[in-house]
Amino acid sequence: MIKRLTLFLIVHFAALGLGSVLMGTGPMGNWYQDLNKAPWTPPGWVFGAAWTLIMIFLSIAMAKLLGKTSRRSHVMSIWGVHLVLNVLWNPLFFNWHLLGIALIEILMLLGLVIYLGLCMKKEIGRWSLLILPYILWLSIAATLNGYAFQFN
């Protein structure tokens, strides 16, 4: 379990790092600063705290899941696609300013994470609840993206 957990933590935080690199100046850049943002947009520090917690929880759930599931290749495929979508959103939104495509992409990511959570529920029961903060955060992020798409 510890080896799997360590591996997932490394991969998840590396993906967050890659996403940060791919978003360039991101929320500190002029484009984002001038963007008409949703009134419920949280302060910047919340994003870092949320993603840290989400990736720790997801790493624990994935480590548990891989220790129990017989559908390892299926779960890892879903997880892999989810990781690519997670990283891809950053340049779509922040660098290329493709707000509509980013919205579609984040909704696909949300659907995939919900599906991953359902797979977890079958295999690891209450441990699957660790994915709920991720689902909640993606839901909020999708509304923020949707607002930006509609009002910019």
Short description:
Helices cover 80% and strands 0% of the residues. By secondary structure, the protein is mostly helical. It has one domain (2-151): Ferritin (Up-down Bundle), CATH 1.20.1260.
Kindly report the name of the CATH homologous superfamily.
TspO/MBR protein
CATH class group: Mainly Alpha
Rg computed from alpha carbons, rounded to a whole number of angstroms? 16 Å
How much helix, percentage-wise, in residues?
A: over 70%
The gross shape turns out to be: elongated
Strand content: under 5%
Count of discrete domains: 1
Give helix and strand order, one letter per element, not per position.
HHHHHH
What's the average pLDDT? 93
Number of helical regions: 6
Low-pLDDT parts are none
Number of strands: 0
For the biggest sheet, the summary is: none
Explain this structure.
The chain is mostly helical and 152 residues long. Helices cover 80% and strands 0% of the residues. It has 6 helices and no strands. Helix 4 packs antiparallel against helix 5. The longest helix is centred in the C-terminal third of the chain and has 26 residues.
Tags for this model:
152 residues, mainly alpha, Ferritin, 80% helix
Topology summary:
Elements: H1 2-22, H2 30-34, H3 44-68, H4 72-95, H5 99-124, H6 132-151
Helix pairs in contact: 1-3, 1-4, 4-5, 5-6
